[in-house]
Structure formats: structure tokens, C-alpha cells
Specification:
Structural class: mainly alpha
Shape: globular
Number of domains: 1
CATH class: Mainly Alpha
CATH superfamily: NusB-like
Radius of gyration: 17 Å
């Protein structure tokens, strides 16, 4: 699993860079790979994370905003926002990764790359979002069950 940690770090660096240059994710990844190397597994997962996060950015930002009371995305540090986007993308689109792993990895990234408060800030938002997503999925399951039992 070490390669996934490295992939998340790479993805964060590429996503962070996109805050300052007007290029698409594919070009940003090519620039990164032109200057750095990584094992194939880390490279593949990093590219999946970057492309997916960029592709679903609006959806991810809405979910983050819905769980961040009193904090607009504009008030958050760019590092924290990008870590949150990565984690929320994993919550929704990486069924093979347990939410607890995603949450712990995001907090670790915040502690390494963010401010002294980033880890706890990220933990609070992701914990609330994970709870909301689990409740929503449970309700979908229960709604489906109740409909099928009526027929």
C-alpha cells in the first residue's frame, strides 16, 4: 500500500499546481512526469486520482461545502481544499478503499503538507461527510427494500 500513499502525495502536488497555472490535468501530469519518477503503481493511481478529481470537481466542491459549516471553499487553504477533494473522490469512486483508510490518509496528508490545524480540520469535514454519505446509502437501501416488500 506504500505506492498508494506516494500516489496521493503526487496527486496532491499536481492538483495544487493547477491552482496557479491554466492547463488541463493531462498537461499537468505530463509536466510532473517530465521532472519526477514514481513506481508504475503509484503513477497509475496518481493519474486516476488527478483526472477523476478534476473531472468531478464541481460535484466534490458541493459535497465539501455542504459539510463545512461557516467555511466557504474560498476561505480554506488551497492545500486543505485539494486534500478534501482527493478524499471525497475516493469516498465516492474508489469502492475498494475503506472510508476509514481514505480519512486517515487525508489527515496524514494534511499534517504533512498543510498547517498545524489542517489534520483536525480535514478530519472534521470528512467525518461529517462520510456519515452523511453512509446515511444516504442506508436510506437508498431501505427505500429499495420497502418498495420491493410492498409489491
Amino acid at each position: 500500500m506504500r505506492s498508494r500513499r506516494k500516489a496521493r502525495e503526487i496527486a496532491l502536488q499536481v492538483l495544487y499546481s493547477l491552482n496557479f497555472v491554466d492547463i488541463d490535468a493531462r498537461d499537468a501530469l505530463e509536466l510532473f512526469w517530465g521532472n519526477f519518477v514514481a513506481p508504475k503503481a503509484a503513477k497509475d493511481f496518481a493519474e486516476f486520482l488527478v483526472r477523476g478529481t478534476c473531472e468531478h470537481k464541481k460535484e466534490l466542491d458541493k459535497l465539501i461545502a455542504d459539510c463545512s459549516d461557516n467555511w466557504s471553499l474560498g476561505r480554506m487553504s488551497k492545500v486543505d481544499v485539494n486534500i478534501l477533494r482527493l478524499a471525497v473522490f475516493e469516498f465516492i469512486y474508489c469502492d475498494d478503499i475503506p472510508p476509514k483508510v481514505t480519512l486517515n490518509e487525508a489527515v496524514d496528508l494534511g499534517n504533512i503538507f498543510g498547517s498545524e490545524n489542517s489534520g483536525s480540520f480535514i478530519n472534521g469535514i470528512l467525518d461529517a461527510l462520510n456519515l452523511k454519505l453512509n446515511k444516504k446509502n442506508a436510506n437508498k437501501y431501505l427505500d429499495g427494500k420497502s418498495r420491493s416488500s410492498k409489491t
